[in-house]
Amino acid sequence: MRENIGVARTKNALKAALLSLLHEKELREITITQITSAAGYARGSFYFHYQYKEELLDELIDDTIRGFTTSFKEPYERRRHEFNLMNISYPTVTIFEYIHKNASAFRLFFTRSNMGFQEKLAQAIQAIYIQDMELLFPAIPEHINRDIITHHHVYLLLSFIAFWIKSNFKYSPQYMTEQMLEIAKLNSVSHKNKPLET
């Protein structure tokens, strides 16, 4: 069930306020009054939607990951029958555009290891890879362990993102996307051309 516009606006303001405050101090140092004051709402508005500030943070993290997974699936979700990794290009792949648009959140979550964000993001990416293994990695030989290759690709992508954030978004989303696709295509070709073991 979708939230009405007013509820969504209030929640988004509270989450934006919390995100801003988290760049300045730890969660334990932030009060509900500080959050609502920064958001421009009364304390009652907070307690109408949440019990604790930790609940607000959890929702902020979940929203950020949900947006990421939606962007990740965008190139193939509605065109599975014609999807081919070798044929996709920058305009179709939007995960780096999404990260750049939400740079404040990703910068925070990748520099604060105590929030559990990276673990949750890794789990979300892993779930996608497991569900869509044959679609995303069609050239992997049968003798390659699926659990191992999934773990490899999950942390390859996470390290790609972490590098970009650590560089303070030195490269454009388009450049990062093109580099990621070239590496993915290179891996796909190498798997396909690798001779079978005897």
UniProtKB/TrEMBL annotation:
The UniProt entry, under InterPro entries, shows:
Homeodomain-like_sf, HTH-type_Tx_Regulator, HTH_TetR, TetR_C_Firmicutes
Ordered alphabetically, the record's keywords are:
DNA-binding
Q: Is DNA-binding one of the keywords?
A: yes
Domain (HTH tetR-type) spans 8-68
A single Gene Ontology MF term assigned here is: DNA binding
- Where does this protein bind DNA? 31-50
Q: Which SUPFAM superfamilies match?
A: Homeodomain-like
- For the keyword Calcium, the answer is no
* Lineage: superkingdom: Bacteria
Pfam family membership, one: TetR_N
PANTHER family for this protein: ACREF/ENVCD OPERON REPRESSOR-RELATED, TETR-FAMILY TRANSCRIPTIONAL REGULATOR
Name the record gives this protein: TetR family transcriptional regulator
